[in-house]
């Protein structure tokens, strides 16, 4: 998809360059700051001063003033020009000769013109824009010779050139670009990268230079742009890898340049502009007879045979806004993120947030709410910008004004929906969801009143279940706006008198202020009662700690709430589950209330299975996690009795209840997992073997045992148990327990796992045994080394036991290598109470 990224602006018109001389053509150009140099086919160099002229309409234009032109004295066209501004020199290639010209006078430098400082036999050259020489008054240059398969590295000074390196190539090079020590070359049949310092070479890809003109362009530090077969522009770094996807341009491209984030390519009839970020074609400009395209310090210039033009990039912000205006959100975001390297960090963050917010509103207008929410979140949108689209949702006291320039094109929700009520409803549901998510985050700091009031209005209008939760919670709803809205939609409300801003926030310390209760239908009575019940419990559970006031005694509260089982249940949950009070009476009381609720739900007809499941899950969790309740008060329901038996370590009775009375096999397995958690593997194995034995028994006590192999439910449960928890069993013991009539195919998962586990254990044991043997051999080796050390005895040394000197070489060595007399060692053994022999005695001397 197209976007206007550049404008083609004339810089040097034909009449200014050549007057009425029709045969003069432009061959090359060079720009250094405001100075433009043009080389022509009649061996002239023209010097222009190029100024950008401001336009009242904002369109760029240039004014060119011709300063000088100079004939170089040769009969061939000027092939290439490169500026060395630090030296105030132009490097000129003409008729296969490279020489230096003064940038101001265009006169050839005398020493370079006279005595051998010229470089002859040159086909092309390039300047190293990332020089390795630290001399600021020296330019590094790579030169291709027409006579040899070499690349020559020269140092160019103010009045001389010096050859410093010559690199041989496998084929004749025809194009070159230089960055640091890296040479990117187009050879006759392929592209390569050479490091002329180390000699390392990396082939890139094949290319036939006879079919089309090769392009080798340095675009950044150690990165190059190359013309590849198939009309592709390939990127390659110094390691020979490509970190960007290629761009697809035409087969006839003759020159290319980069103005980040765009690649500009020139062919015979067009200038094409592709994005480096998404590789898409963004713009095409008609341009005939073009044959020169160069980028000079961010300025892209191109030339036909008769005139010079500048491709002026439009500001990135304008490009991004154009993309957003045409609802091309993804392209705008890619361009924004890609432009980060060219924009100061603080400015970029502000720009990026705004673009994300605009993108979010575009997606919102397209009803793509997930994408809109993500853009709003990343862009840190002031949520009131979104609320303000909905008429009357912001409270009248709000001081909010919309951002300028605006983030979107919508006046309000009605303008967006154009009368489509389904769109309106979907947008309101999205706002409810979005406000509910951000309400507790930092995104609403400073505007809680606006957010809570808008959310309450939406809840009331849409008859939302969360209205009472909002009213009962700490909120900042504006009373003056909220009460009329609730009255309009006939919703009950509980609010404090005399609190204009926090009208729906109860006083948790007590009902010191008057309360107003309003309801408009009998259907509102039940939720109102629930609200009042929750609010009453909150008086005790959310009561702030105040200095000088005694804490509320939980026993008194429990006694006060005794007639209100639901309120009492909520308060006990607060004590046990939230405050973690470790008192037996509270835990027992809560467990009994859970049990009573389960019993009541079981007695209902018809049963509410959802409520029953939730109640039993609460009871089961309480029985498992707490160890403070009294078991004897809870022996009622079978499932709960099984858990209690597990607490008492009566696992056989617990499994009997689960398997034979309840026929609840998943719960039986879950019981084994729960009861063995935190225990060792042997304990877990005992439990699972016990469950397997219960399954294989097949009948409760007192009943006839079912014959094996009848496909009973118990046998299938046993098979499932083995296949699911095979690692918990002793495979040999299981095989002895199983009936001989069972098919091995049924137990294939268990047997596979058992064989693997057995092989793993065997191999692990062998490894451990091998390591132990290796350690033992090493210790024996160390011992032998110690025993074979020489023991030095002399007349100057004394016995460690009798302290007399040695007169004979025969000694006994005690542990630690201490020599003693033979008779002293024998006496020591005789005097030992255990008569033990010396373990480490040695007779060698």
Tell me the quaternary state.
single chain
* Structural class assignment: alpha+beta
Secondary structure tally: strands: 32
Q: Please tell me how large the radius of gyration is.
A: 46 Å
Question: Do you know the CATH architecture of one domain?
Answer: 7 Propeller
End-to-end Cα distance: 97 Å
- Stretches where pLDDT is under 50 for at least 5 consecutive residues are 112-116, 495-526, 706-711, 834-845
Q: How much helix, percentage-wise, in residues?
A: 25-40%
How are the elements arranged and paired?
Elements: E1 6-12, H1 14-18, E2 26-32, E3 35-40, E4 44-53, E5 61-71, E6 78-84, E7 89-94, E8 97-102, H2 110-114, E9 119-120, E10 122-127, E11 139-145, E12 150-156, E13 161-168, E14 175-179, E15 182-186, E16 190-195, E17 201-206, E18 216-220, E19 223-228, E20 232-237, E21 247-248, E22 255-259, E23 262-266, E24 270-275, E25 281-286, E26 292-296, E27 299-303, E28 308-313, H3 316-325, H4 329-338, H5 345-365, H6 369-378, H7 383-387, H8 413-417, H9 421-438, H10 448-461, H11 467-472, H12 479-488, E29 493-496, E30 515-518, H13 525-541, H14 554-560, H15 565-578, H16 584-603, H17 609-625, H18 638-647, H19 651-661, H20 665-676, H21 681-697, H22 713-724, H23 731-737, H24 748-787, E31 812-814, E32 818-820, H25 822-831
Antiparallel strand pairs: 1-28, 2-3, 3-4, 4-5, 6-7, 7-8, 8-9, 10-11, 11-12, 12-13, 14-15, 15-16, 16-17, 18-19, 19-20, 20-21, 22-23, 23-24, 24-25, 26-27, 27-28, 29-30, 31-32
Helix pairs in contact: 3-4, 3-5, 4-5, 5-6, 9-10, 10-12, 13-15, 15-16, 16-17, 17-18, 18-19, 19-20, 19-21, 20-21, 21-22
């Amino acid at each position: 998809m197209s976007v206007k990224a550049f404008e083609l602006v004339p810089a040097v018109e034909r009449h200014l360059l050549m007057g009425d001389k029709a045969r003069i053509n432009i061959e090359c150009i060079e720009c250094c700051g405001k100075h433009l140099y043009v080389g022509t086919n009649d061996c002239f160099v023209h010097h222009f001063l190029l100024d950008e002229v401001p336009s009242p309409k904002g369109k760029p234009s240039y004014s060119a003033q011709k300063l000088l032109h100079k004939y170089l004295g040769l009969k061939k066209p000027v092939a290439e020009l490169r500026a060395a501004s630090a030296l105030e020199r132009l490097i000129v290639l003409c008729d296969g000769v490279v020489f230096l010209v003064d940038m101001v006078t265009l006169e050839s430098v005398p020493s370079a013109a006279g005595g051998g400082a010229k470089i002859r036999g040159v086909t092309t050259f390039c300047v190293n824009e990332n020089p390795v020489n630290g001399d600021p008054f020296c330019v590094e240059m790579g030169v291709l010779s027409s006579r040899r398969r070499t690349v020559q590295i020269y140092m160019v000074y103010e009045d001389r050139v010096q050859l410093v390196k010559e690199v041989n190539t496998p084929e004749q090079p025809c194009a070159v670009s230089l960055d640091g020590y890296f040479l990117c070359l187009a050879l006759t049949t392929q592209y390569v990268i050479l490091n002329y310092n180390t000699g390392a070479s990396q082939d890139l890809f094949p290319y036939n230079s006879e079919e089309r003109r090769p392009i080798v362009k340095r675009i950044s530090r150690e990165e190059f742009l190359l013309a590849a077969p198939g009309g592709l522009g390939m990127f390659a770094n110094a390691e020979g890898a490509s970190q960007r996807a290629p761009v697809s341009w035409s087969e006839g491209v003759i020159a290319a340049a980069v103005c980040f984030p765009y690649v500009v390519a020139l062919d015979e009839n067009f200038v094409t502009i592709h994005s480096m970020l998404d590789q898409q074609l963004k713009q095409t400009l008609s341009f005939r007879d073009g044959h020169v395209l160069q980028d000079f310090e961010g300025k892209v210039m191109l030339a036909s045979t008769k005139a010079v033009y500048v491709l002026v990039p439009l500001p990135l912000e304008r490009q991004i806004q154009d993309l957003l205006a045409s609802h091309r959100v993804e392209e705008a975001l890619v361009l924004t993120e890609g432009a980060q390297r060219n924009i100061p960090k603080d400015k970029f963050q502000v720009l990026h947030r705004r673009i994300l917010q605009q993108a979010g509103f575009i997606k919102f207008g397209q009803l793509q709410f997930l994408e809109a929410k993500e853009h709003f979140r990343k862009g840190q949108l002031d949520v009131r910008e979104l609320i303000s689209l909905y008429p009357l949702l912001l409270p009248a006291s709000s001081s909010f004004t919309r951002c300028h320039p605006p983030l979107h094109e919508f006046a309000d929700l009605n303008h967006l929906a154009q009368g489509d009520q389904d769109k309106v409803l979907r947008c309101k549901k999205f706002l409810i969801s979005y406000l509910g998510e951000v309400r507790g985050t930092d995104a609403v700091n400073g505007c809680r009143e606006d957010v809570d009031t808008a959310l309450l209005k939406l809840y009331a209008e849409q008859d939302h279940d969360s209205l009472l939760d909002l009213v009962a919670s700490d909120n900042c709803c504006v009373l003056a706006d909220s009460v009329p809205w609730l009255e309009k939609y006939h919703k009950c409300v509980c609010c404090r008198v005399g609190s204009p801003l926090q009208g729906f926030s109860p006083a948790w310390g007590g009902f010191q202020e008057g309360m107003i209760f309003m309801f408009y239908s009998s259907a509102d009575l039940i939720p109102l009662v629930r609200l009042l019940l929750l609010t009453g419990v909150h008086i005790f559970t959310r009561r702030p700690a105040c200095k000088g006031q005694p804490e509320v005694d939980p026993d008194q509260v429990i006694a006060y709430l005794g007639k209100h089982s639901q309120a009492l249940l909520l308060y006990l949950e607060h004590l046990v589950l939230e405050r973690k009070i470790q008192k037996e009476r509270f835990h027992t009381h809560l467990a009994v209330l859970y049990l009573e609720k389960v019993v009541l739900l079981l007695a209902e007809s018809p049963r509410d299975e959802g409520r029953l499941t939730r109640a039993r899950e609460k009871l089961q969790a309480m029985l498992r996690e707490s160890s403070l309740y009294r078991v004897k008060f809870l022996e009622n329901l079978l499932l709960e009795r099984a858990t209690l038996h597990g607490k008492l370590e009566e696992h056989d009775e617990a499994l009997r209840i689960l398997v034979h009375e309840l026929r609840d096999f998943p719960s039986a397995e879950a019981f084994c997992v729960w009861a063995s958690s935190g225990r060792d593997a042997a304990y877990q194995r005992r439990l699972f073997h016990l469950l397997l034995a219960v399954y294989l028994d097949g009948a409760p006590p007192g009943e006839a045992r079912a014959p094996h192999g009848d496909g009973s439910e118990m046998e299938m449960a046993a098979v499932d148990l083995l296949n699911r928890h095979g690692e918990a069993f002793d495979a040999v013991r299981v095989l002895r327990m199983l009936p001989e009539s069972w098919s091995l195919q049924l137990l294939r998962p268990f047997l596979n796992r058992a064989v693997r586990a057995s092989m793993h254990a065997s191999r692990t044991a062998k490894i451990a045994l091998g390591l132990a043997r290796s350690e033992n051999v090493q210790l024996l080796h160390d011992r032998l080394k110690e025993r074979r050390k020489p023991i030095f005895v002399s007349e100057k040394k004394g016995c460690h036991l009798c302290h007399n000197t040695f007169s004979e070489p025969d000694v006994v060595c005690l542990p630690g290598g201490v020599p003693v007399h033979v008779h002293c060692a024998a006496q020591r053994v005789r005097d030992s109470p255990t008569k033990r022999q010396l373990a480490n005695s040695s007779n060698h001397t």
